[in-house]
């Protein structure tokens, strides 16, 4: 099906159900569907060309979802813009995709003036929440389309190869690439997510606090297809998240592991009722097994995890809540370190650099094929070819699969440290450090070393009021990991640098140590 067909199915089955609850109001599915139709009409009345890129530049707001769906309905291409990015990065990406339409929140008024000046392809700019100088409000814009027709561009197959989105990669190794998200890939993700994450119980209530410009927006789209009520928070605030789970009887919640750590560290984390939770999904990066076990103790048997990437959205693998709860109780506890089994829509294997599929237990690159895989990178045939060698999609992640089919990620290939000729995977060292109860967060990088080429260095953020010495961290890791993988130095810090997508920014962390080196590996 077309992407918008998934929304319409959910909306038409639940027209009078509350679709969105936000600080400034609530909307039923009937009202939400009407708003998306009006946005699509206004785009068409304004001269929309087929498959033109239309972006959304906003903090979390109900109108972000309305515009996303209106763009998909109109036949334009949805482009999420990460509002946490530097203005230069966003301008560069908009020029790369030749952005034609832009919806923004007035909070970014100053940034939009710069965008308008530097992105010549822009033909129309609309402010979501109010009239902003020369730019109409979303409400005024929708009124401009009254009575205008919306072309029915669908076909009997649901236009599987047509673009639904141009979604930026994280850009941690250079400028962000635009992933060509097709109707087929987005539809596959929707069907897999509803199969694995959603259950058939009482009607779902989904709390949206992670950025809708990232994975949270895609998951909100997924949950619309089953008629979920969406509670939208402007941003992540740990105490408010805990309050809202109880207040709204939230059933489904997505967060990256770093946000979960903040919840677990909050002094009031055990003061609320979480019994409504059925699917507390973790995705975006590996989670420390001890933290996942702690989360089960606090939030109950609802914790689950998925693994995917922009190029294969969200759900290449899934670790279900029953398996997580059993592992936390001592049944196969090693599975707390797994990201689950491959989902139904993909075949996933471990491959070496020569293209040989490896047996269980051997480490190599995680590769996959199937209808979840997106259509490559926009205007980058060489980069697309690079991730499609040997007839598979290459994730760039290093991992292994056990005899039962559970997948374990050990690192990104580019984050691997080679120390004294041995491979050291950052995530493995981080998990060992995170097992210390005093540790709130940890990041590991390789730094130049005259003898070993690279030495393992750990950056550690302690929990409030906790104390720990570098010698204690090193001794603990030596016991768990052995000498090669143990950090040779530990630096305590107030916070770990993050990318705008909320992932550890190893590039920034490595820069001071490697800036005078002729190459970035030793």
Fold blueprint:
Layout: H1 3-12, E1 18-22, E2 25-28, H2 29-45, E3 53-57, H3 62-74, E4 77-81, H4 87-97, E5 101-104, H5 109-118, E6 124-127, H6 138-143, E7 163-168, E8 178-182, H7 183-196, E9 205-208, H8 215-224, E10 229-232, H9 238-247, E11 252-255, H10 257-265, E12 279-282, H11 289-299, E13 303-309, E14 312-319, H12 321-328, E15 341-342, E16 346-351, E17 364-370, H13 381-386, E18 393-401, E19 407-412, E20 417-419, E21 422-424, H14 426-434, E22 439-449, E23 453-462, H15 470-481, E24 489-492, H16 506-514
Parallel strand pairs: 1-10, 3-4, 3-5, 5-6, 9-10, 9-11, 11-12, 12-13, 23-24
Antiparallel strand pairs: 1-2, 7-8, 13-14, 14-15, 16-17, 17-18, 18-19, 20-21, 22-23
Helix pairs in contact: 1-2, 2-3, 4-5, 7-8, 11-12
């Amino acid at each position: 099906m077309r992407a918008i067909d998934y929304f319409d199915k959910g909306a038409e089955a639940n027209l009078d159900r509350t679709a969105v609850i936000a600080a400034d109001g609530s909307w039923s599915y009937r009202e939400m569907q009407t708003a998306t139709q009006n946005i699509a009409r206004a785009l068409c009345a304004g001269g929309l060309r087929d498959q033109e890129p239309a972006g959304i530049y906003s903090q979390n707001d109900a109108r972000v979802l309305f515009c996303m769906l209106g763009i998909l309905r109109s036949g334009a291409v949805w482009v999420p813009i990460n509002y946490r990015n530097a203005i230069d990065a966003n301008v560069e990406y908009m020029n790369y995709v030749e952005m034609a339409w832009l919806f923004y929140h007035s909070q970014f008024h100053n940034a939009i003036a710069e965008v308008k000046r530097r992105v010549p392809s822009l033909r129309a700019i609309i402010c979501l929440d109010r009239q902003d100088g020369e730019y109409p409000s979303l409400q005024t814009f929708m009124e401009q389309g009254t009575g205008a027709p919306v072309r029915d561009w669908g076909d009997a197959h649901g236009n599987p190869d047509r673009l639904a989105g141009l979604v930026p990669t994280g850009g941690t190794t250079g400028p962000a690439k635009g992933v060509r998200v097709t109707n087929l890939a987005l539809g596959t993700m929707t069907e897999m997510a509803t199969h694995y994450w959603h259950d058939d119980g009482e009607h779902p209530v989904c709390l949206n606090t992670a950025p809708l410009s990232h994975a949270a927006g895609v998951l909100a789209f997924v949950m619309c297809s089953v008629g979920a009520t969406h509670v939208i928070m402007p941003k992540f605030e740990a105490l408010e998240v805990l309050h809202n789970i109880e207040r709204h009887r939230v059933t489904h919640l997505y967060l990256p592991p770093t946000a979960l750590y903040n919840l677990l560290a909050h002094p009031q984390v055990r003061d609320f009722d979480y019994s409504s939770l059925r699917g507390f999904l973790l995705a975006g990066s590996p989670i420390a097994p001890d933290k996942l076990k702690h989360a089960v103790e606090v939030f109950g048997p609802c914790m689950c995890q998925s693994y995917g990437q922009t190029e294969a959205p969200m759900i290449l693998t899934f670790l279900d809540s029953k398996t997580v709860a059993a592992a936390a109780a001592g049944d196969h506890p090693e599975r707390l370190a797994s990201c689950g089994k491959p989902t139904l829509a993909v075949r996933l294997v471990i491959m070496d650099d020569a293209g040989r599929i490896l047996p269980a237990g051997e480490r190599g690159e995680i590769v996959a094929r199937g209808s979840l895989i997106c259509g490559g990178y926009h205007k980058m045939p060489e980069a697309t070819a690079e991730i499609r060698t040997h007839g598979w999609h290459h994730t760039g992640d290093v991992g292994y699969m056990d005899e039962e089919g559970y997948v374990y990620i050990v690192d990104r290939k580019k984050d691997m440290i080679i120390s004294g000729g041995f491979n050291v995977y950052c995530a493995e060292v981080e998990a060992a450090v995170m097992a210390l109860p005093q540790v709130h967060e940890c990041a590991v990088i390789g730094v130049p070393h005259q003898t070993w080429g690279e030495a393992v260095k750990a950056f550690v953020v302690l929990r409030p009021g906790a104390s720990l010495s570098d010698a204690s961290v090193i001794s603990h890791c030596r016991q768990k990991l052995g000498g090669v993988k143990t950090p040779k130095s530990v630096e305590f810090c107030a916070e770990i640098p993050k990318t705008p997508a909320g992932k550890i920014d190893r590039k920034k962390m490595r820069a001071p140590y490697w800036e005078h080196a002729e190459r970035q590996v030793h």
